[in-house]
Amino acid sequence: MFSRKLTISIVAGVAAVAVVGCSSGAVSATSSASPAASSSPAASSSSSGGGGSNARSGPAAGGSSGTVSSVSTSGFTLTTSAGQKVTVKEASSTTYQKGTSPASASAITAGEPVLVLGTVNSTTITATQVTVQPAGSEGSAASTAAGVVPFQQGAPATSKTVGQIPADYTQGSGTLASGTTANKATEAALAAYPGGVVDRVVELSKGDYEVHYIGVNWPHHIFVNQDFKVIGAND
């Protein structure tokens, strides 16, 4: 009896190893086929701004856009066109508009497209302004045209640059932007590359802006000029 139990155990163990091996092979095949860069929202937030000791590792001005997926008494959640889930916290100071007209928090309902600006900490935004049905809110079509690569865990790294990268840009350079300046740069970046979360805006030495992007595998840096027009992007 003991010998039979031992034999069964060994067979079961071998089968388990075979299943794990097959699963690992499937993951490897999927990963190698993807052109996306290897990154997670948290990793990209700290790896592209000069390191964790940099002030940019903390909450900063930014925002996101997408479709409201659920509403609670303290805020709501949205899903971006690239599938990123974002938690939005509302406060007594949060302002609302629907299109270009003033509105209230009651305008936020499931299924509505929204643009959220505020203080960003990873994929949580404490909202200062929420716009329901913002202009140009057809997110997924714009995302496809802009070439946004949705986040995929474990995908191999790749290098991709489009447009113009400011000559004075180096990772970790510049100063954090806030207020209207950060809002305008954030809106420009989200209009050109919807699907992720802007977790900080950095003003470069010659007046252009680097908008740092998380929640997608590409792009992680979007560059906006002094007229708040997107001029380039890279990983």
Short key terms for the protein model shown above:
two-stranded antiparallel ribbon; 235 residues; alpha+beta; disordered N terminus; 15 strands; 2 domains
Low-confidence stretches: 1-55
Widest beta sheet: strand line-up: 1-2-3-7-6
Span between N and C termini? 61 Å
| H-E string | HHEEEEEEEHEEEHEEEEE
Query: Which percent band covers the strand fraction?
Result: 25-35%
Annotation field: number of helices: 4
General form = globular
What does this structure look like?
- This protein is an alpha+beta fold and 235 residues long.
- The protein has two domains: 1-33; 41-234, no CATH class.
- The chain contains four helices and 15 strands.
- It has helices spanning 2-33, 41-47, 139-146, 179-192, and strands at 60-71, 75-79, 85-89, 95-98, 101-103, 113-121, 124-132, 149-150, 161-163, 175-176, 197-203, 209-214, 216-218, 221-224, 230-234.
- A five-stranded mixed β-barrel has the order 1-2-3-7-6. Strands 8-13 form a two-stranded antiparallel sheet.
- Strand 4 (95-98) and strand 5 (101-103) form a beta hairpin.
- The chain is globular, with a radius of gyration of 21 Å.
- The model is unreliable at 1-55 (pLDDT under 50).
Layout of strands and helices, then pairs:
Blueprint: H1 2-33, H2 41-47, E1 60-71, E2 75-79, E3 85-89, E4 95-98, E5 101-103, E6 113-121, E7 124-132, H3 139-146, E8 149-150, E9 161-163, E10 175-176, H4 179-192, E11 197-203, E12 209-214, E13 216-218, E14 221-224, E15 230-234
Parallel strand pairs: 3-7, 4-7
Antiparallel strand pairs: 1-2, 1-6, 1-11, 2-3, 4-5, 6-7, 8-13, 9-15, 10-11, 11-12, 12-14, 14-15
